[in-house]
Each structure stands twice: as structure tokens, then as C-alpha cells.
Amino acid sequence: MADEIMRITGGTPVRGETTVQGAKNSVLPIMAAAMLCQGETVLTNVPQLSDVYAASRILNRLGAHCTPDGHTVTINAADICRAEIPDADMRAMRSTIMFMGPLLGRMRQCTLTRPGGCALGARPINLHLDAMEKMGVIIRCTGEQIVCTADKLHGARIPLAFPSVGVTENVIMAAVLAEGETVLTNAAREPEIADLAGYLNRCGAKIRGAGEGTIVIEGVPQLHAAEYRIMPDRIAAMTWLCAAAASRGSITLRDVRTGDLENCLDLLRRAGCKLGECDGTLFLDAGGVLRSIREIVTMPYPGFPTDAQALLMAVLATAHGTSVFDETIFEDRYKHAGELVRMGADIRIKGTAAVVEGVHCLHGAYVEAMDLRGGAALAVAAAGAEGQTVLHGLHHIDRGYDHFAEVFNSLGIRTERMVISTSSRGKTSA
Ligand code: EPU
């Protein structure tokens, strides 16, 4: 059996620049939404990710014609004829649940099972199902299958108990072709929601307030296809910024929307990084001693994102003093902490809190990515660590980063990706 690993040689400050990829969490719902539109949708600035290929496979199995070509994806949904996503496809990623809204909008029915995705604790779909029921969907759960049907999909008032990103997106996608008006309150405000609405409005939808707590969607009879550029990925941007900070280096990032990153940039500044920006280009300089941050609480946008928690922890592992994280969004999102400890970090987990005592430096080790952002955080830590780190579990990283190793190399972090036999696992020569 073979396994792919990344060997990262750390300890040299990052010096370099890179362009930020398109956003994973924007392109996936937009690809699903394309099934609502008549004609040929052309998406540009699409990152090359295994999740994008998985979404493309699902669209094709439903009968659409979806063709990824470099950083462009073309989708023609005219021939969609199926409304069932097999369990194996559902388990490929969390975003498969995002097919529920558009399938109901387009076919008035769908049969799914529970979605997969990163193991971050229980990730129920109760709020998705409740919201669809409010719009007239009848849901039957038979064994593993969730069978949804709607003679008529109608607008509704939907107050969300929690501002879930996925539920907000599913409601928008179901509501754009529903009869009447849908008012979603306590909606998620993440920038990716506004990107989805931006795409759908370009296709003729009537969505107001996306990016705010109340979103109003007036159903229209049909949507036409359009060309749309996917927004830059704020978490990928934060990943490269953190690699520069962890290595006490400097970086220039192009194609960044700094407004979307304010909560992250604020914490990097508090840690002692110097930041500057000019026309969509962001500069970070982390030369010198970094300071701990007393309280970092993950919150829905515009709060500090849970997706950046592991990345910032990799930086603060070597900052002076004690940092304390409170993870409020997912119940089990500290799997990277144990791996960082293998690299010499001093981290204790107590319930939802992670207490990080800054150490002088980390050292290379054999570590394993347990989920997407946790895996990226280990690579970030490796960039600043003395010696070589061997990172396993790259399939997690490939779900969300376009050519991770190439970007690291372009930033001056020596990174080799190689296939090893699993019998030599843990013994790869460093
Ligand atoms: N939740 C429920 N019931 C539901 C839906 C959500 O209890 O029906 C809970 C979840 O269990 C969780 C919280 O609500 O505790 C937040 O979940 P949310 O629905 O907002 O997250 P998501 O839509 O599943 C998206 C991103 C995640 C990101 C979260 C939070 C995509 C494809 N995924 O997930 O991204 O962490 O929002 O911002 O957009 C990643 O990119 O690595 C990633 C995990």
C-alpha cells in the first residue's frame, strides 16, 4: 500500500509572494446552484481541489454536463434527470448537503443520505431539514435515506436557531425558484453567502440582504446562466499569512479582500505582526518576537472564524506567553493540538478551551492531518519549526488547497511531496 506525504524543511523565514486561490466554501455551493440556471454557467477563478472534482462528479451523475478545465468550470444543467445522490458521494464532503436546496428548487424532490466532510464532532442536519419543511417539503427518513418531496415549494419566514452557513445557503438556493417571498432571519453573514447571492442575482434571482442577518428572497419563475468569478479564499489567505508569521518572515499576498479578513488580521496585529495593504495586495512582516493573545473565541462571521483557529494556534505555539482559545462552533476541532505537541508545543485542552504556553521553538516530527484546516496548521507549524516535518493525511489538505506544496515552495519553504510505501510509514528518512 502507498501513502502520500509532504516533507517540509522549516526554520527559514518566509520571503515571497503569492496570489490567493478562489474560495472553496464559495465555489461548492455555487456549483450546486448552477443546476437552477438555464444555459451554460461559466465559473472562473475556481481552485483545483478534490472537493471541486467531487462536486463535478455529482453534477454529472445527476445528468448535468460539468467540465472543470484548469481554473474554469463550465456547467450545463439542461439534462438533469436524477434527484438522488448515492451514499458514497454524500460521504465525500460536507458540501453535498448543499445539493438539497437546489435539487428541491429544480426537481421538487431529492433523496440523500447524511453528508461526510471533516470530523469536527457531531454535525447534525436538523436545521437544514426544519428550514426545508417550512418551505413545504415533506421529509421521510427511511433507514439511512432522507427522501424529500415538495408538490409546491413556497416562500416562508425562517428564523434560524443558529446562523448556520450551510442552512443559509440551502434556503437561498431553494427559495430563488419558490413561489413567493422567503425571509430568513439570524442568517449567517459569511462573505461566501454574499458571493452565492451575487452569482444567483446575476442569473436573475431576487435576493436582498445577503451578508446581513436578514435575507429576503423573492421567488422568480426561472434563472438564466451567467459567467461568474469566484471570490478569493479568506482562509487560504490566512494560511499563507500564518506560515509567514510562524517562520517570522514576510509575505505579499495578491487578490485578497482584506475586509473579509479583518477579524484575522486584527489578531495577527495583536500578536505583533506588521500589516499593510494597497489595492487588493496585503503585506505582512513578522520579524521579531511574537506575543501571546489572552482570549481568542471562534464565532460566526464577523467574529474570528473557526476555520482559522488551528492556523493561529500554530503561530501562537511559539509566541511569548499564554494564549487561550475557545472553540464555540464545533465540538471537536482540536485534533491538531496533539500533533502540535509532538512538534514540541505546550498545549492543554480543557473542554472548549485550548491553553497554549508559547515555547521557544518547535521541532520537526512525523505528524498526521486529521482534518483540512488542522492539516494546514501542521504545515504552518512545520514552516517555522527546526528540522524536517513529515506530514501524512494529505487527502484532507487536497480538499481545500490548490497545489499546497507548490505555494509553500514559492514562498521559500522547502516542501517535497512524495509517495511512500505504508510499510515505511513513520520511518521516512528525514
Ligand atoms: N449545525 C446544526 N444543525 C444543522 C447545521 C449546523 O446543529 O442543521 C451546527 C453545526 O454542527 C456546527 C454549527 O452549526 O456546530 C456551524 O455549522 P455550519 O452549518 O455553519 O457549518 P457548515 O455549513 O457545515 C461551513 C464551512 C465550514 C466552516 C463552517 C463554519 C462549507 C462547505 N463549510 O460549514 O468550513 O467551518 O461553515 O464557518 O462552507 C472548512 O472549510 O474547513 C470548513 C469546515
Structural class: alpha/beta
Helix share, percent: 25-40%
Strands across the major sheet, in which order?
A: 23-24-1-25
Query: What would CATH call the homologous superfamily of the largest domain?
Result: Enolpyruvate transferase domain
Entry summary:
This protein is α/β, with parallel strands linked by helices and 430 residues long.
General description of the model:
With 430 residues, the chain is an alpha/beta fold. It has helices at residues 24-33, 50-62, 87-90, 100-107, 126-134, 165-175, 191-202, 234-246, 262-270, 309-316, 335-342, 372-384, 394-398, 404-410; strands at residues 2-10, 15-19, 37-38, 40-44, 65-69, 72-76, 109-112, 138-142, 145-149, 157-159, 181-185, 206-208, 215-218, 223-224, 227-229, 250-254, 274-278, 281-285, 296-297, 322-326, 346-350, 353-357, 366-368, 387-392, 414-421. Strand 21 (346-350) and strand 22 form a beta hairpin. Helix 1 (24-33) packs parallel to helix 2 (50-62), helix 4 runs parallel beside helix 6 and helix 6 runs parallel beside helix 7 (191-202). The protein is globular. The protein binds uridine-diphosphate-2(N-acetylglucosaminyl) butyric acid. Residues 24-25, 28, 94-95, 118, 123-128, 162, 164-167, 188, 305-307, 329-330, 372-373, 400 line the site of uridine-diphosphate-2(N-acetylglucosaminyl) butyric acid.
